[in-house]
Amino acid sequence: MKVLKFGGSSLANGEGIKAVTGIVAEAARDDRVAVVLSAMKGVTDRLISLARKAEEGSDGLKDEMEAIRAQHFDAVRSLLGPADQASALMPLAIMCNELEEVLHGVELIRECSARTMDLVMSFGERLSCSLAVSYMCARGIAAVLVDAREIVRTDERFGSAAVDFPKSYTLIREKLEGLTGVAVIPGFVGATAKGVTTTLGRNGSDYTASIIGAGLDAKVIEIWTDVDGVLSADPRIVPDAFVIPALSSEEAMELSYFGAKVIHPYTMVPAVERNIPILIKNSLNPAAPGTLIAAAETIKRDGALPITGIASIEGISLVNIEGGGMMGIPGFAARIFAALAREGINIIMISQASSEHTICLVFRTAEGERALATLNRELAPELHSRRIERFELMQELLIVSVIGENMHGTPGMAGRLFSALGRAGINILVIAQGSSERNISFVIEAKNHALALRTIHAEFLSGRRK
Ligand code: ADP
Ligand code: ASP
Ligand code: MG
Fold it and tell me: How far is residue 315 from each of residues 12, 67, 96, 309, 378, measured CA to CA in Å?
Protein backbone atom coordinates (compact mmCIF):
# COMPACT_ATOMS: atom_id res chain seq x y z
CA MET A 1 0.00 0.00 0.00
CA LYS A 2 1.22 3.46 -0.95
CA VAL A 3 -0.23 6.80 0.09
CA LEU A 4 0.13 9.63 -2.44
CA LYS A 5 -0.60 13.21 -1.38
CA PHE A 6 -0.91 16.07 -3.85
CA GLY A 7 -0.81 19.68 -2.64
CA GLY A 8 -2.70 22.68 -3.97
CA SER A 9 0.40 23.56 -5.98
CA SER A 10 -0.19 20.40 -8.04
CA LEU A 11 -3.90 21.16 -8.37
CA ALA A 12 -3.99 24.63 -9.88
CA ASN A 13 -6.30 23.78 -12.79
CA GLY A 14 -7.47 21.02 -15.11
CA GLU A 15 -3.93 20.44 -16.41
CA GLY A 16 -2.71 19.84 -12.87
CA ILE A 17 -5.50 17.35 -12.16
CA LYS A 18 -4.66 15.54 -15.38
CA ALA A 19 -0.99 15.24 -14.38
CA VAL A 20 -1.94 14.06 -10.90
CA THR A 21 -4.26 11.43 -12.36
CA GLY A 22 -1.46 10.17 -14.59
CA ILE A 23 0.82 9.74 -11.57
CA VAL A 24 -1.93 7.94 -9.63
CA ALA A 25 -2.66 5.60 -12.57
CA GLU A 26 1.02 4.72 -12.83
CA ALA A 27 1.32 3.99 -9.09
CA ALA A 28 -1.90 1.94 -9.06
CA ARG A 29 -0.48 -0.46 -11.64
CA ASP A 30 1.92 -2.01 -9.13
CA ASP A 31 0.49 -1.19 -5.71
CA ARG A 32 -2.68 -0.54 -3.82
CA VAL A 33 -2.99 3.22 -3.57
CA ALA A 34 -4.74 5.74 -1.34
CA VAL A 35 -4.73 9.37 -2.50
CA VAL A 36 -4.92 12.46 -0.26
CA LEU A 37 -5.65 15.79 -1.92
CA SER A 38 -5.43 19.42 -0.82
CA ALA A 39 -7.79 22.11 -2.03
CA MET A 40 -7.05 23.54 -5.47
CA LYS A 41 -4.38 26.22 -5.47
CA GLY A 42 -5.38 29.39 -3.61
CA VAL A 43 -8.82 28.05 -2.62
CA THR A 44 -8.24 27.86 1.15
CA ASP A 45 -7.06 31.49 1.22
CA ARG A 46 -10.11 32.46 -0.82
CA LEU A 47 -12.46 30.62 1.53
CA ILE A 48 -10.97 32.39 4.56
CA SER A 49 -11.34 35.72 2.82
CA LEU A 50 -14.96 34.88 1.92
CA ALA A 51 -15.79 34.06 5.53
CA ARG A 52 -14.16 37.29 6.76
CA LYS A 53 -16.07 39.32 4.17
CA ALA A 54 -19.34 37.66 5.16
CA GLU A 55 -18.59 38.45 8.79
CA GLU A 56 -17.98 42.11 8.01
CA GLY A 57 -20.96 42.23 5.69
CA SER A 58 -18.70 43.75 3.03
CA ASP A 59 -19.21 43.73 -0.71
CA GLY A 60 -17.47 41.39 -3.06
CA LEU A 61 -18.85 38.22 -1.53
CA LYS A 62 -20.70 37.20 -4.67
CA ASP A 63 -17.73 37.80 -6.97
CA GLU A 64 -15.40 35.81 -4.81
CA MET A 65 -17.87 32.95 -4.52
CA GLU A 66 -18.18 32.99 -8.30
CA ALA A 67 -14.39 32.80 -8.63
CA ILE A 68 -14.31 29.63 -6.51
CA ARG A 69 -17.15 28.10 -8.46
CA ALA A 70 -15.50 29.02 -11.77
CA GLN A 71 -12.11 27.57 -10.75
CA HIS A 72 -13.75 24.16 -10.26
CA PHE A 73 -16.26 24.31 -13.09
CA ASP A 74 -13.60 25.47 -15.58
CA ALA A 75 -11.41 22.53 -14.61
CA VAL A 76 -14.30 20.12 -15.23
CA ARG A 77 -14.99 21.67 -18.63
CA SER A 78 -11.35 21.51 -19.64
CA LEU A 79 -11.03 17.88 -18.55
CA LEU A 80 -14.25 16.14 -19.53
CA GLY A 81 -16.33 15.83 -22.65
CA PRO A 82 -19.97 16.99 -22.59
CA ALA A 83 -21.24 13.48 -21.74
CA ASP A 84 -19.27 13.32 -18.46
CA GLN A 85 -19.54 16.97 -17.47
CA ALA A 86 -23.01 16.95 -15.97
CA SER A 87 -22.35 14.18 -13.47
CA ALA A 88 -19.08 15.87 -12.42
CA LEU A 89 -20.63 19.33 -12.09
CA MET A 90 -23.66 18.22 -10.10
CA PRO A 91 -21.91 17.42 -6.77
CA LEU A 92 -19.74 20.54 -7.14
CA ALA A 93 -22.81 22.72 -7.65
CA ILE A 94 -24.51 21.19 -4.62
CA MET A 95 -21.46 21.84 -2.44
CA CYS A 96 -21.07 25.41 -3.69
CA ASN A 97 -24.71 26.09 -2.85
CA GLU A 98 -24.24 24.62 0.60
CA LEU A 99 -21.17 26.83 1.10
CA GLU A 100 -23.18 29.86 0.03
CA GLU A 101 -25.83 29.02 2.62
CA VAL A 102 -23.22 28.75 5.36
CA LEU A 103 -21.77 32.11 4.31
CA HIS A 104 -25.22 33.63 4.26
CA GLY A 105 -25.63 32.47 7.87
CA VAL A 106 -22.34 34.15 8.76
CA GLU A 107 -23.50 37.31 7.02
CA LEU A 108 -26.75 37.35 9.02
CA ILE A 109 -25.17 36.93 12.43
CA ARG A 110 -22.01 38.86 11.51
CA GLU A 111 -19.84 36.34 13.22
CA CYS A 112 -17.63 33.52 12.01
CA SER A 113 -16.53 31.35 14.94
CA ALA A 114 -13.46 29.11 14.68
CA ARG A 115 -15.88 26.21 14.35
CA THR A 116 -17.69 27.79 11.41
CA MET A 117 -14.37 28.77 9.82
CA ASP A 118 -13.33 25.10 9.86
CA LEU A 119 -16.55 24.14 8.12
CA VAL A 120 -16.01 26.86 5.50
CA MET A 121 -12.37 25.82 4.91
CA SER A 122 -13.32 22.14 4.58
CA PHE A 123 -15.14 22.89 1.33
CA GLY A 124 -11.81 23.41 -0.46
CA GLU A 125 -10.60 19.83 -0.04
CA ARG A 126 -14.07 18.36 -0.47
CA LEU A 127 -14.54 20.16 -3.79
CA SER A 128 -11.13 19.23 -5.19
CA CYS A 129 -11.61 15.56 -4.25
CA SER A 130 -15.07 15.36 -5.79
CA LEU A 131 -13.69 16.85 -9.00
CA ALA A 132 -10.67 14.54 -9.08
CA VAL A 133 -12.79 11.43 -8.46
CA SER A 134 -15.09 12.30 -11.39
CA TYR A 135 -12.11 12.75 -13.69
CA MET A 136 -10.29 9.64 -12.48
CA CYS A 137 -13.42 7.52 -13.01
CA ALA A 138 -13.82 8.96 -16.52
CA ARG A 139 -10.22 7.90 -17.17
CA GLY A 140 -11.00 4.34 -16.08
CA ILE A 141 -9.51 4.47 -12.57
CA ALA A 142 -11.83 2.97 -9.95
CA ALA A 143 -11.63 6.03 -7.68
CA VAL A 144 -13.82 6.19 -4.57
CA LEU A 145 -14.40 9.37 -2.57
CA VAL A 146 -13.93 8.79 1.17
CA ASP A 147 -15.07 11.47 3.60
CA ALA A 148 -12.08 12.34 5.83
CA ARG A 149 -14.54 13.17 8.61
CA GLU A 150 -15.38 9.50 8.92
CA ILE A 151 -11.78 8.44 9.46
CA VAL A 152 -9.78 11.32 11.01
CA ARG A 153 -11.04 11.79 14.58
CA THR A 154 -9.95 14.94 16.41
CA ASP A 155 -10.66 17.01 19.50
CA GLU A 156 -12.50 20.33 19.32
CA ARG A 157 -9.55 22.70 18.94
CA PHE A 158 -10.94 24.25 15.78
CA GLY A 159 -8.29 25.59 13.43
CA SER A 160 -5.60 23.16 14.59
CA ALA A 161 -7.38 20.16 16.04
CA ALA A 162 -5.40 17.38 17.77
CA VAL A 163 -5.79 13.92 16.27
CA ASP A 164 -6.99 10.93 18.30
CA PHE A 165 -4.58 8.42 16.79
CA PRO A 166 -5.87 5.08 18.15
CA LYS A 167 -9.44 5.91 17.18
CA SER A 168 -8.45 7.29 13.78
CA TYR A 169 -6.28 4.26 12.98
CA THR A 170 -9.18 1.92 13.76
CA LEU A 171 -11.56 3.96 11.59
CA ILE A 172 -9.01 4.15 8.75
CA ARG A 173 -8.52 0.40 8.75
CA GLU A 174 -12.24 -0.33 8.96
CA LYS A 175 -13.07 2.01 6.12
CA LEU A 176 -10.11 1.56 3.78
CA GLU A 177 -8.69 -1.92 4.18
CA GLY A 178 -11.51 -3.75 2.43
CA LEU A 179 -12.00 -1.08 -0.20
CA THR A 180 -11.31 -2.02 -3.78
CA GLY A 181 -10.18 0.78 -6.04
CA VAL A 182 -8.32 3.98 -5.23
CA ALA A 183 -9.55 5.81 -2.13
CA VAL A 184 -9.47 9.61 -2.63
CA ILE A 185 -9.46 11.41 0.72
CA PRO A 186 -9.65 15.15 1.44
CA GLY A 187 -6.58 16.26 3.40
CA PHE A 188 -6.56 18.85 6.20
CA VAL A 189 -10.10 17.96 7.37
CA GLY A 190 -11.28 15.84 10.31
CA ALA A 191 -14.22 15.63 12.68
CA THR A 192 -14.94 15.37 16.39
CA ALA A 193 -16.64 12.36 17.98
CA LYS A 194 -19.93 14.20 17.44
CA GLY A 195 -19.20 14.60 13.74
CA VAL A 196 -18.43 18.34 13.87
CA THR A 197 -16.01 19.33 11.08
CA THR A 198 -12.50 20.37 12.16
CA THR A 199 -9.21 21.20 10.41
CA LEU A 200 -5.64 20.21 11.26
CA GLY A 201 -3.92 23.58 10.73
CA ARG A 202 -2.72 25.27 7.54
CA ASN A 203 -0.72 23.00 5.27
CA GLY A 204 -2.29 20.06 7.14
CA SER A 205 -2.91 17.78 4.15
CA ASP A 206 0.65 16.45 4.48
CA TYR A 207 -0.24 15.45 8.02
CA THR A 208 -3.44 13.71 6.85
CA ALA A 209 -1.39 11.66 4.38
CA SER A 210 0.91 10.54 7.15
CA ILE A 211 -2.00 9.60 9.45
CA ILE A 212 -3.59 7.54 6.67
CA GLY A 213 -0.23 5.96 5.84
CA ALA A 214 0.38 4.99 9.46
CA GLY A 215 -3.18 3.65 9.84
CA LEU A 216 -2.70 1.41 6.81
CA ASP A 217 0.94 0.50 7.53
CA ALA A 218 1.83 1.81 4.09
CA LYS A 219 5.25 1.05 2.63
CA VAL A 220 5.77 4.70 1.68
CA ILE A 221 4.06 8.08 2.02
CA GLU A 222 4.66 10.21 -1.07
CA ILE A 223 4.17 13.98 -0.83
CA TRP A 224 3.86 15.42 -4.33
CA THR A 225 4.43 19.17 -4.67
CA ASP A 226 5.85 21.74 -7.12
CA VAL A 227 9.57 21.52 -6.29
CA ASP A 228 12.03 18.65 -6.79
CA GLY A 229 12.20 17.85 -3.07
CA VAL A 230 13.24 19.51 0.17
CA LEU A 231 15.76 22.14 -0.79
CA SER A 232 18.70 23.38 1.27
CA ALA A 233 16.86 26.73 1.63
CA ASP A 234 13.70 28.42 0.39
CA PRO A 235 14.33 28.59 -3.37
CA ARG A 236 12.45 31.88 -3.64
CA ILE A 237 15.08 33.51 -1.43
CA VAL A 238 18.24 31.54 -2.14
CA PRO A 239 18.61 30.90 -5.89
CA ASP A 240 21.52 28.48 -5.27
CA ALA A 241 19.41 26.17 -3.09
CA PHE A 242 19.71 22.52 -4.10
CA VAL A 243 17.68 19.38 -3.47
CA ILE A 244 18.67 17.41 -0.36
CA PRO A 245 18.60 13.73 -1.44
CA ALA A 246 17.99 12.33 2.05
CA LEU A 247 17.04 13.79 5.42
CA SER A 248 16.53 12.30 8.86
CA SER A 249 13.01 12.68 10.26
CA GLU A 250 14.39 14.97 12.96
CA GLU A 251 16.07 17.23 10.42
CA ALA A 252 12.87 17.35 8.37
CA MET A 253 10.86 18.22 11.46
CA GLU A 254 13.23 21.00 12.46
CA LEU A 255 13.37 22.44 8.95
CA SER A 256 9.60 22.48 8.62
CA TYR A 257 9.01 23.74 12.15
CA PHE A 258 11.37 26.61 11.40
CA GLY A 259 9.60 27.59 8.22
CA ALA A 260 10.36 25.22 5.32
CA LYS A 261 6.81 25.20 4.03
CA VAL A 262 7.33 22.22 1.74
CA ILE A 263 6.13 19.82 4.46
CA HIS A 264 4.00 20.23 7.58
CA PRO A 265 6.10 19.60 10.74
CA TYR A 266 3.68 17.05 12.26
CA THR A 267 3.85 14.88 9.14
CA MET A 268 6.93 13.09 10.43
CA VAL A 269 5.32 11.99 13.73
CA PRO A 270 2.97 9.16 12.61
CA ALA A 271 5.44 8.05 9.92
CA VAL A 272 8.36 7.75 12.37
CA GLU A 273 6.25 5.78 14.84
CA ARG A 274 5.48 3.16 12.20
CA ASN A 275 8.86 3.38 10.49
CA ILE A 276 7.39 4.51 7.18
CA PRO A 277 9.62 6.49 4.81
CA ILE A 278 8.32 9.76 3.35
CA LEU A 279 9.25 10.70 -0.20
CA ILE A 280 8.90 14.29 -1.42
CA LYS A 281 8.33 14.39 -5.20
CA ASN A 282 7.62 16.95 -7.89
CA SER A 283 4.37 16.43 -9.81
CA LEU A 284 5.71 18.74 -12.55
CA ASN A 285 8.88 16.65 -12.86
CA PRO A 286 8.10 13.07 -11.76
CA ALA A 287 11.43 11.77 -13.08
CA ALA A 288 13.40 13.68 -10.43
CA PRO A 289 14.38 11.35 -7.57
CA GLY A 290 13.01 13.66 -4.84
CA THR A 291 13.93 13.72 -1.16
CA LEU A 292 13.74 10.71 1.13
CA ILE A 293 12.88 11.35 4.78
CA ALA A 294 13.60 8.38 7.02
CA ALA A 295 15.18 7.30 10.31
CA ALA A 296 18.65 8.84 10.74
CA GLU A 297 20.45 5.48 10.86
CA THR A 298 18.96 4.30 7.57
CA ILE A 299 19.89 7.22 5.33
CA LYS A 300 23.11 7.97 3.51
CA ARG A 301 24.17 11.59 3.82
CA ASP A 302 26.83 13.73 2.30
CA GLY A 303 29.40 13.61 5.08
CA ALA A 304 31.26 16.58 3.66
CA LEU A 305 28.54 19.14 4.28
CA PRO A 306 28.61 20.66 7.75
CA ILE A 307 24.93 21.62 7.69
CA THR A 308 21.89 20.17 5.94
CA GLY A 309 19.62 23.14 5.43
CA ILE A 310 18.45 26.60 6.44
CA ALA A 311 14.92 27.75 7.22
CA SER A 312 13.32 30.94 8.47
CA ILE A 313 10.12 32.19 10.08
CA GLU A 314 8.92 35.67 9.25
CA GLY A 315 6.59 37.84 11.31
CA ILE A 316 8.43 37.56 14.61
CA SER A 317 8.44 39.86 17.66
CA LEU A 318 10.43 39.66 20.84
CA VAL A 319 10.38 40.88 24.42
CA ASN A 320 13.58 41.17 26.41
CA ILE A 321 13.06 41.23 30.19
CA GLU A 322 16.06 42.58 32.05
CA GLY A 323 16.89 43.45 35.64
CA GLY A 324 19.00 42.41 38.58
CA GLY A 325 15.88 41.68 40.58
CA MET A 326 15.27 38.41 38.76
CA MET A 327 18.48 36.90 40.00
CA GLY A 328 18.00 33.74 41.97
CA ILE A 329 14.25 34.11 42.41
CA PRO A 330 12.92 30.59 41.97
CA GLY A 331 9.79 30.35 39.88
CA PHE A 332 10.21 33.63 38.03
CA ALA A 333 10.33 31.98 34.61
CA ALA A 334 7.52 29.61 35.61
CA ARG A 335 5.27 32.59 36.40
CA ILE A 336 5.96 34.15 33.02
CA PHE A 337 5.25 30.91 31.17
CA ALA A 338 2.10 30.21 33.17
CA ALA A 339 0.71 33.69 32.53
CA LEU A 340 1.33 33.37 28.79
CA ALA A 341 -0.10 29.86 28.71
CA ARG A 342 -3.29 31.05 30.43
CA GLU A 343 -3.75 33.52 27.57
CA GLY A 344 -3.08 30.78 25.00
CA ILE A 345 0.03 32.60 23.74
CA ASN A 346 2.66 30.44 22.10
CA ILE A 347 6.35 31.13 22.86
CA ILE A 348 8.39 30.05 19.84
CA MET A 349 11.84 30.53 21.30
CA ILE A 350 13.32 31.30 24.71
CA SER A 351 16.77 32.30 25.76
CA GLN A 352 18.09 33.11 29.22
CA ALA A 353 21.53 34.49 29.75
CA SER A 354 23.43 32.58 32.42
CA SER A 355 23.75 35.76 34.46
CA GLU A 356 19.99 35.46 34.97
CA HIS A 357 19.78 39.13 34.16
CA THR A 358 17.75 38.70 31.02
CA ILE A 359 15.05 36.44 29.69
CA CYS A 360 14.23 36.81 26.06
CA LEU A 361 10.91 35.55 24.70
CA VAL A 362 10.08 35.26 21.02
CA PHE A 363 6.51 35.30 19.65
CA ARG A 364 4.67 35.47 16.39
CA THR A 365 3.87 39.11 15.67
CA ALA A 366 0.13 38.33 15.63
CA GLU A 367 0.43 37.46 19.34
CA GLY A 368 3.08 40.05 20.23
CA GLU A 369 0.86 42.82 21.58
CA ARG A 370 -1.13 40.39 23.69
CA ALA A 371 2.07 38.86 25.02
CA LEU A 372 3.37 42.30 25.98
CA ALA A 373 0.15 43.18 27.79
CA THR A 374 0.15 39.84 29.62
CA LEU A 375 3.77 40.26 30.74
CA ASN A 376 3.11 43.82 31.90
CA ARG A 377 0.19 42.59 33.99
CA GLU A 378 1.99 39.59 35.46
CA LEU A 379 5.16 41.49 36.26
CA ALA A 380 3.51 44.69 37.52
CA PRO A 381 4.86 44.23 41.09
CA GLU A 382 8.45 43.75 39.89
CA LEU A 383 8.16 46.68 37.48
CA HIS A 384 6.77 48.84 40.26
CA SER A 385 9.57 47.96 42.65
CA ARG A 386 12.15 48.39 39.85
CA ARG A 387 13.40 44.85 40.27
CA ILE A 388 13.12 44.60 36.52
CA GLU A 389 13.36 47.30 33.89
CA ARG A 390 10.55 48.41 31.58
CA PHE A 391 10.45 46.25 28.49
CA GLU A 392 9.10 46.73 25.00
CA LEU A 393 8.05 44.73 22.02
CA MET A 394 10.61 44.62 19.21
CA GLN A 395 8.93 43.96 15.87
CA GLU A 396 9.68 43.20 12.22
CA LEU A 397 12.03 40.39 13.10
CA LEU A 398 12.78 36.95 11.72
CA ILE A 399 14.03 33.63 13.10
CA VAL A 400 16.70 31.91 11.05
CA SER A 401 17.44 28.30 11.81
CA VAL A 402 20.47 26.32 10.65
CA ILE A 403 19.90 22.58 10.77
CA GLY A 404 21.92 19.40 10.31
CA GLU A 405 22.85 16.13 12.01
CA ASN A 406 26.48 16.77 11.01
CA MET A 407 26.63 19.81 13.28
CA HIS A 408 26.54 17.48 16.25
CA GLY A 409 29.96 17.42 17.83
CA THR A 410 31.53 19.66 15.16
CA PRO A 411 33.44 22.28 17.13
CA GLY A 412 33.51 25.81 15.83
CA MET A 413 30.21 25.66 13.96
CA ALA A 414 28.62 28.53 15.83
CA GLY A 415 31.80 30.59 15.57
CA ARG A 416 31.95 30.16 11.82
CA LEU A 417 28.25 30.91 11.43
CA PHE A 418 28.24 34.11 13.44
CA SER A 419 31.57 35.33 11.99
CA ALA A 420 30.11 35.02 8.49
CA LEU A 421 27.00 36.95 9.55
CA GLY A 422 29.17 39.53 11.29
CA ARG A 423 31.21 40.09 8.13
CA ALA A 424 27.94 40.67 6.27
CA GLY A 425 27.04 43.32 8.85
CA ILE A 426 24.07 41.43 10.28
CA ASN A 427 23.23 42.08 13.91
CA ILE A 428 22.08 39.06 15.97
CA LEU A 429 19.47 39.78 18.64
CA VAL A 430 19.02 36.36 20.29
CA ILE A 431 20.58 32.92 19.88
CA ALA A 432 19.28 29.51 20.92
CA GLN A 433 20.94 26.17 20.32
CA GLY A 434 19.05 22.94 20.85
CA SER A 435 20.84 20.48 23.10
CA SER A 436 20.59 17.97 20.26
CA GLU A 437 23.14 20.22 18.50
CA ARG A 438 21.10 19.65 15.39
CA ASN A 439 19.87 23.21 15.27
CA ILE A 440 21.15 26.72 15.89
CA SER A 441 18.44 29.38 15.72
CA PHE A 442 18.75 33.12 16.02
CA VAL A 443 16.68 36.27 15.63
CA ILE A 444 17.60 39.11 13.27
CA GLU A 445 15.85 42.09 11.73
CA ALA A 446 13.51 41.15 8.88
CA LYS A 447 15.29 43.51 6.48
CA ASN A 448 18.31 41.16 6.54
CA HIS A 449 16.31 38.10 5.48
CA ALA A 450 17.75 37.41 2.03
CA LEU A 451 21.26 38.57 2.95
CA ALA A 452 21.42 36.27 5.97
CA LEU A 453 20.16 33.18 4.15
CA ARG A 454 22.45 33.72 1.16
CA THR A 455 25.45 34.40 3.42
CA ILE A 456 24.95 31.17 5.38
CA HIS A 457 24.28 29.18 2.22
CA ALA A 458 27.47 30.48 0.63
CA GLU A 459 29.51 29.82 3.80
CA PHE A 460 28.44 26.20 4.34
CA LEU A 461 26.79 24.87 1.21
CA SER A 462 28.54 26.47 -1.73
CA GLY A 463 30.18 24.27 -4.28
CA ARG A 464 27.17 21.98 -4.54
CA ARG A 465 25.56 21.75 -7.92
CA LYS A 466 21.88 22.63 -8.14
P1 ADP B 1 1.76 22.15 -1.65
O2 ADP B 1 0.67 22.99 -2.24
O3 ADP B 1 2.21 21.07 -2.60
O4 ADP B 1 1.46 21.63 -0.30
P5 ADP B 1 3.44 24.21 -0.55
O6 ADP B 1 3.27 25.53 -1.22
O7 ADP B 1 2.77 23.99 0.77
O8 ADP B 1 3.03 23.09 -1.61
O9 ADP B 1 4.99 23.89 -0.37
C10 ADP B 1 5.87 23.90 -1.48
C11 ADP B 1 6.62 25.23 -1.54
O12 ADP B 1 7.43 25.38 -0.37
C13 ADP B 1 7.63 25.32 -2.66
O14 ADP B 1 7.02 25.78 -3.85
C15 ADP B 1 8.66 26.30 -2.14
O16 ADP B 1 8.48 27.58 -2.69
C17 ADP B 1 8.40 26.37 -0.65
N18 ADP B 1 9.60 26.10 0.17
C19 ADP B 1 10.02 26.83 1.23
N20 ADP B 1 11.13 26.32 1.77
C21 ADP B 1 11.43 25.22 1.04
C22 ADP B 1 12.46 24.24 1.11
N23 ADP B 1 13.44 24.29 2.04
N24 ADP B 1 12.45 23.24 0.22
C25 ADP B 1 11.48 23.16 -0.72
N26 ADP B 1 10.49 24.06 -0.85
C27 ADP B 1 10.45 25.07 0.03
N1 ASP C 1 -5.63 23.54 1.88
C2 ASP C 1 -5.00 23.65 3.17
C3 ASP C 1 -4.15 24.91 3.23
O4 ASP C 1 -4.06 25.62 2.26
C5 ASP C 1 -4.23 22.43 3.56
C6 ASP C 1 -3.07 22.09 2.65
O7 ASP C 1 -2.97 22.61 1.54
O8 ASP C 1 -2.25 21.26 3.06
O9 ASP C 1 -3.60 25.20 4.26
MG1 MG D 1 1.68 22.36 1.61
Answer: 27, 29, 34, 20, 25
